[in-house]
């Protein structure tokens, strides 16, 4: 195709000819007369797939631009240099003006965000070595360096740049950090004090202990003088015999009936714990330590600059150092006292947490305050939720007939009630005045001598020709109160007691007769 227009290339990957053998697709395609033959319309394809001349020229122009060598010497990583360039764009002033604002602590030019950017731009030890090696090799000439490299050289020329900018940053963010940490520490302390002083919470655990000892009476778990805080989660899982409510429902019912305002105290405590759980106690410890370390670092910087001032030759540098020492000294005189106060508040919070652990008889070495308050938050949430459910459904604590709501046979009792309800619905046409059927008769018990009594003789039929005797008159039914039918086990126990009493009486008579002889 001579003098044909350039077409858009199809950048496929060719299969080597030695691989196009049987049984591949390309072996089947090659030389098969049975397949279709395609005659290409070359002019049509050239018109459809030709390259855009303007785009081609633009592409070549862009390629030439990219091939042009940079007029700056780049010593930093490309991404690092790009980040420094982006950070410098927010200052909108020259490198010298930025350094002047740092030396004079001019906060009209530098705010908190810009100080954070400057801290991230400070050269590392390796970067500083690379820059100094370049200057030494090029006799101090830095004009050919890129903008990022030139600015790092400016920062490195400042006295103690890392400590200087760090001290300025500490001064600017100290007020915000002090207010935030102080408020959170006070909130954590008040929450711990509220847990120990809440009368309603104390009554809840006392009520749980009373009910638990009633349920466990006669068992090795009974007679407890207290229970672990982790055991409080079992109260919500212990179902009542009516299979509807739990011990927490019953406890809320008793608490409401005994004292007004107890539920409101629990609600207030729950809200206080909810607010405190937004705080991380580990975060408070870390933050207070960081503030204390930063304050000590700023004091060290002021001391080092004071020693360095004596060795400075230029008056301009000495003036900047004296200005820095004066402003930071005034600030640190009050900041140090406030940092000490934050440390005292942190120690008070940890002391209150230790008292909470002792209050609930927890191991102080394994006590996790965050986990404890989270569990207490869950427990109070379930308890108050049961109180709301009781307002809408009082049958949650309804006592089953002839049974205690704390019966251990909750499943048996509930199933018997279910059977009674089914019988009432299914047998509406039956005579309900009939007495309940008697339990099946037990086999005869042996007599004291060990022999079994003979069964009664069968009734004799009347002789032929005679009418059977009239039935005896029916005895008048006495109105007695209905008693529940005894179970088979109760009947057997009564009979065994009678036999034992009879044997004891006969043995007593035999002993008395031997004494008379």
TrEMBL record:
<feature type="domain" description="FH2">
    <location>
        <begin position="1"/>
        <end position="409"/>
    </location>
</feature>
<dbReference type="InterPro" id="IPR015425">
    <property type="entry name" value="FH2_Formin"/>
</dbReference>
<dbReference type="Pfam" id="PF02181">
    <property type="entry name" value="FH2"/>
</dbReference>
<feature type="coiled-coil region">
    <location>
        <begin position="252"/>
        <end position="318"/>
    </location>
</feature>
<keyword id="KW-0175">Coiled coil</keyword>
<dbReference type="InterPro" id="IPR042201">
    <property type="entry name" value="FH2_Formin_sf"/>
</dbReference>
<feature type="region of interest" description="Disordered">
    <location>
        <begin position="407"/>
        <end position="488"/>
    </location>
</feature>
<feature type="compositionally biased region" description="Pro residues">
    <location>
        <begin position="434"/>
        <end position="474"/>
    </location>
</feature>
<dbReference type="InterPro" id="IPR051425">
    <property type="entry name" value="Formin_Homology"/>
</dbReference>
<protein>
    <recommendedName>
        <fullName>FH2 domain-containing protein</fullName>
    </recommendedName>
</protein>
<feature type="compositionally biased region" description="Basic and acidic residues">
    <location>
        <begin position="407"/>
        <end position="433"/>
    </location>
</feature>
